[in-house]
Amino acid sequence: MATGKEPDTVREAVGYFWDAQTLETAIDDLLRSGFDRAELSLLAAEGTVEQKLGHKYEKVQELEDDAAVPRRHYVSTESIGDAEGGLVGGLLYIGAIAAAGGIVATGGTLAAAFAGAAVAGGAGGFIGSVLARLIDERHAEHVQTQLDHGGLLLWVRTRDDEHEARAVDILKKHSGQDVHVHDVPALA
Q1: Percent of the chain scored above 70 by pLDDT?
Q2: How crowded is residue 136: how many other Cβ atoms within 10 Å of its Cβ?
Q3: What CA–CA distance (Å, rounded) separates 15 from 168?
Q4: Residue 66 confidence (pLDDT)
Q5: Which class for 156: exposed (0-12), middle (13-18), buried (19 or more C-beta within 10 A)?
Q6: CA torsion sign, 135 to 26 to 154 to 74?
Q7: Is domain 1-59+149-188 in CATH 3.20.20.140, yes or no?
Q8: Domain residue spans of the chain
Q9: How far apart are CA 36 and CA 143, in angstroms?
């Protein structure tokens, strides 16, 4: 029997920003003010959004209140840098150890093992730096695509009226545009 009750919803603040630095500053302020990273979400890649919605979008403002729009979790620029460093360092280390181990295992001299480690480690580090650059370029391209469509969207899930007011104040304080609160299905 139908009860007429609406599906469960949650409240979230939303706004968009004209540049990545202002967005990062607003996010840092939200995190310092007691919001959790899990409560923050950004617009997914353009291709993902278009595939999910079944059409292209002109402006990010069209997507602010659409619960069906795919989102991604916030990842700080520091975390991206950490991943890039780990990629470079990891491939450098693996290359060096594999080369040195292979040379020693086949009866090579210690000098040959050091030379092999240096060459293979350098090659691994080079490959890692190329891959890190690709990660950085992909992130920059994603940001630029959103800017080309009118800005960088940020959604902030709110727990209660106090968090809602704090989120709106912080977004506005950092020049968030069209800052407002809306309801979305709890599972969105």
Answers
A1: 60
A2: 15
A3: 9
A4: 86
A5: buried
A6: positive
A7: no
A8: 1-59+149-188, 80-135
A9: 22
Residue 45 near residue 142 (C-beta atoms within 8 A): yes
**What pLDDT shows up at residue 183?**
85
What distance in Å separates the CA atoms of residue 169 and residue 119, rounded to the nearest whole number?
Answer: 54
**Both tokens assigned to 23:** 């967005």
Residue with tokens 């968030």: 176
**Of 129, 136, 119, 137, nearest in space to 91 by CA:** 129
* pLDDT at site 155: 92
- Report pLDDT digits (tens) over 89-103: 665 656 556 666 666
Between CA 61 and CA 133 the distance in angstroms is 30
CA dist 14 and 180 (Å) reads 6
- Indicate if the pLDDT at residue 5 is higher than 50: no
Q: How far is residue 186's CA from residue 54's CA, in Å, rounded to a whole number?
A: 23
Residue ranges of alpha helices (H) inside the chain are 20-32, 46-53, 77-105, 110-148, 161-173
From edge to edge, which strands make up the β-sheet containing 9-17? 71-73, 40-43, 152-158, 9-17, 177-185
Per-residue pLDDT reduced to its tens digit, 14-63: 999 998 889 889 999 999 999 998 899 988 888 888 888 888 888 888 88
